[in-house]
Design a protein that fits this description.
By secondary structure, the chain is an all-alpha fold. The protein is built from seven helices and no strands. 37% of the residues are buried.
């Protein structure tokens, strides 16, 4: 199955070019990767709080900083040879809490049963995407495919938060962009789960 991604290599490479100097600085200071992981969680909690209070632009930037930490902790661990099975488990677990914190902030802000249901579906898709990959790795199958992985989810939410205000003002729709982003995440994250399950089934059948 082809590895189709919403974020192309140019976007990814551009983001890495921005964060790489920070990574080099972190390597020089010999900071532990887990510290970066925890920092990412704190930025996510801040993002969720800012969403709750309605400061969407600031919440979007805090989310981007959290995403940068998510990239940097793994690269730091590998480049400084501090990577370990426990480190990978710790990072993955904190990532899940980070996403939940952001979605909780959005749910608290909208305070709508319909948006809350959408957010629950987005959380379910996000968690199951990671769960299915973990189960695949337990079967010695690589499973990094899917349209809506963690970088895409962060990008959708951050973009909707930062640029949504301008678009909403132009079309006179209250938080239309964020609601659309949540709908797409809920839909595509769960589609990603299905993609991964099918991928694993095909791999097991061909063995």
């Amino acid at each position: 199955m082809a590895k189709v991604r919403i974020l192309n290599k140019y976007f990814v490479n551009g983001f890495l070019a921005i964060v790489n100097p920070i990574g080099k600085l972190l390597e020089a200071t010999k900071i532990h990767p887990n510290v970066v992981t925890i920092t990412g969680l704190l930025f996510s909690i801040l993002s969720g709080y800012l969403f709750w209070k309605g400061f969407f632009g600031s919440a979007g930037w805090a989310l981007i900083l959290s995403g940068a930490c998510d990239v940097l902790d793994g690269r730091l661990a590998r480049n400084t040879r501090q990577n370990s099975p426990f480190g990978a488990l710790f990072d993955s677990t904190i990532d899940r809490y980070s996403e939940i914190a952001v979605f909780m902030g959005l749910a608290a802000f909208f305070d709508s049963i319909y948006i809350t249901m959408l957010i629950i579906m987005a959380i379910a898709g996000s968690l199951l995407t990671s769960y299915v990959r973990a189960r695949a790795e337990g079967l010695d199958i690589e499973c990094k495919i899917g349209l809506m992985q963690r970088p895409e989810r962060i990008t959708f939410l951050a973009t909707a938060a930062i640029l949504g205000g301008l678009v909403d003002s132009a079309i006179n729709k209250e938080y239309f962009v964020m609601k659309l982003a949540l709908f797409l995440i809920a839909l595509l994250a769960n589609l990603t789960v299905i993609q991964r399950v099918v991928h694993i089934k095909n791999k097991l059948t061909s063995q």
